[in-house]
DNA sequence: GTTTGACTATTTTTAAAAATTGGTCAAAAG
DNA sequence: CTTTTGACCAATTTTTAAAAATAGTCAAAC
């Protein structure tokens, strides 16, 4: 019952956050949407950050599920990484503003840094899993999986940040997103080629 | 004589720009340093942008010279790319604030966009030259040099932007710079491995 | 266990005044 | 003809203080 209402609030907040972003959504607005008083909202979430965190984890869990399914379906390493990029794209389109906000976070407060690091780590762990499997399948050479995964994630994130930096804009539109994903796929291809066993 | 004074002004401006950044350096300050009136400064450079542009091109030319020399000394592709990163590091340390500013430019004005694109293109052309040579030397497989160079530059720039994004800061210190260069070198290694001919 | 209205303390927005800055020009100096 | 300058302007940025919005609290009610 309590969890049920918490989930309802999360859903309501998610709608606003993913549309208008975190900063431009006030707790009062969320409370109004739910037809609760603000004080009541604070009964369910100790503060705004707790709500954001709950949403972030929900999205991550949801995404992890899609990744897990893909992992079972796609044995090839490169194919899997490409699928991963498509999944990420899906989520970015779905929760655009929220995800952008989560990536350009407030980095002055401990809890934000912790959340950011957690998200990065989770992303890196997925890549590690894929690389490990690739090594086990005798598809990739042996290498330091941990640091290489970190590098891979950094490259992908960097490409997303750099994107078409020469064109003035703050918000990324659909075309641009496509071009970013395209570059990421290209990079993934060369990256995997760089750590795969030489073709027999 | 006229060019001589222009160069003196460039040197004076460079000192301020590379220390305090472009925005925090006024034309009056530069004029004062040179013991000229501001109006006189505008006799030598039609506006602030012209001065910045002149400085940018001087640094690029200087850097290109170092690159040209390295190209003659280092035949191996990966070694050359690593050398290139070291050269870039040198220049970043030397002209820190200025280069940072040039990368996060005002992207709302045509001339800035043109300068930014020019810098990017120049960087990409150096990489193209290196890749072309690598192909000719039978070290690399044949591929679309133009788009691959663009991708390479995007990866390197992206890594620089992403860097240690989880730690709060605006200015990059020496340690961080080292860690960025390290990641860039790692990425270059895997990248080249991904496009090089399989070892015999 | 839930819900609320009334209440703070802190940020954020707003709007106007003050200061700075990029840039011009006619005229002077060499 | 080239170089230099002080006086000047328009536009932007910085500063400041008041107004509004916001995150978060709490005692009391349901």
UniProtKB/TrEMBL annotation, chains A, B:
Residues 26-45 bind DNA. Residues 3-63 form the HTH tetR-type domain. GO terms for molecular function: DNA binding. Keywords: DNA-binding, Transcription, Transcription regulation. It holds the Pfam family TetR_N. PANTHER family: HTH-TYPE TRANSCRIPTIONAL REGULATOR YJDC, TRANSCRIPTIONAL REGULATORY PROTEIN. This is Transcriptional regulator, TetR family. It comes from Parapedobacter luteus. The lineage of its organism: Bacteria, Pseudomonadati, Bacteroidota, Sphingobacteriia, Sphingobacteriales.
């Amino acid at each position: 019952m309590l969890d049920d209402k918490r989930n309802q609030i999360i859903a309501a907040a998610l709608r606003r956050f993913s549309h208008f972003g975190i900063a431009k959504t006030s707790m009062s607005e969320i409370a109004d949407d739910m037809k609760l008083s603000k004080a009541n909202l604070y009964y369910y979430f100790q503060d705004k950050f707790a709500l954001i965190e709950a949403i972030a984890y929900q999205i991550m869990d949801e995404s992890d599920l899609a990744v897990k399914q893909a992992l079972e379906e796609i044995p090839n390493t490169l194919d899997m990484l490409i699928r991963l990029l498509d999944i990420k794209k899906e989520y970015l389109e779905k929760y655009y503003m929220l995800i952008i906000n989560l990536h350009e976070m407030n980095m002055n407060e401990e809890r934000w840094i912790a959340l950011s690091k957690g998200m990065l780590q989770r992303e890196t762990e997925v890549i590690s899993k894929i690389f490990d499997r690739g090594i086990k399948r005798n598809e990739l050479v042996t290498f330091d999986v941990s640091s290489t995964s970190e590098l891979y994630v950094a490259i992908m994130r960097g490409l997303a940040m750099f994107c078409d930096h020469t064109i003035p804009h703050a918000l990324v539109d659909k075309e641009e997103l496509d071009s970013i994903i395209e570059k990421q796929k290209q990079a993934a291809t060369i990256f995997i080629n760089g750590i795969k066993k030489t073709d027999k």
